Amino acid sequence: MRYLIKMAYDGSEFIGWQKQKQGRSIQCVMEKALEQFSGVSVPVIAAGRTDAGVHALAQYAHFDYEGRMTMEQMLRAFRRWLPDDIKVLQIWQIGNDLSARYQAFERHYKYLLSKDRDPFNRLYSGFIPHLRISLKPMQDAAQLLLGQHDFSSFGRLNPEVPNHICEIKEISIVEDEDYFTFYIRADRFLHNMVRRIVGTLANISHFALSPDTIPKLLADKCPRQNLVTTAPAEGLYLIDVKYPSELLDGRGTCRFDDLIKRKP
User: Fold this and answer.
1) In 132-239, which residue ranges form alpha helices assigned H by DSSP?
2) What amino acid positions are annotated as catalytic residues?
3) What is the pLDDT of residues 11-63, one digit of tens each?
4) Is 249 helix (H, G, I), strand (E, B) or coil?
5) What is the CATH number of domain 2-102+243-259?
């Protein structure tokens, strides 16, 4: 049987989602926890592979399990075996042919850009030194990113990704006393795409460039441009992933919030 989980994690002490030969990855920690309580070693496949230092408020992943544990028992076991910087929030039983990665049709990120260097929040916000940034120029330029475009200029070169077409469905920026907060929702994202969009919008504001700079960058399709800089990973949060309603509707589920209301 296949299960889908929703989880949150603090990415500060991880090398990213994907397990590698060295370093502490979220995938590796999840798979070890699953093996501890199930007795079997199975892969845990995420909706998206976040980079080192990137956080998630709502990451989704699936795994296969044929044992006798109920979803409530599995949720309790994850609670016991996972470290403090990862929390499984909800679990569903889904069809064996469904995938956390390939059935996702929308992903939603938030980026927190600090106006000043913050020693107490440096692991949870990005800061770009030497830039003077204001809200309106970034908002104006951001609107030209909406829609379907070839985002080669904003992605990291990867020969294994033949298609660089993405559709940004929503992009907004709000400002408060200490931060600019970017919200970006799209059908898919290229590697480093959100961070490069944030860095580019900050550069456009700092250098007082026209919003028309965005269409020119998109048309150029070159990721090695001076204006396209990558904002720090620490400010990036995966905040939601959307699936077709039929994937989860009517499926058995167990939530962490329901679990803690009951006696262990």
Assistant:
1) 135-142, 193-206, 213-220
2) 51
3) 999 999 999 989 999 999 999 999 999 998 999 999 999 999 999 999 999 99
4) coil
5) 3.30.70.580
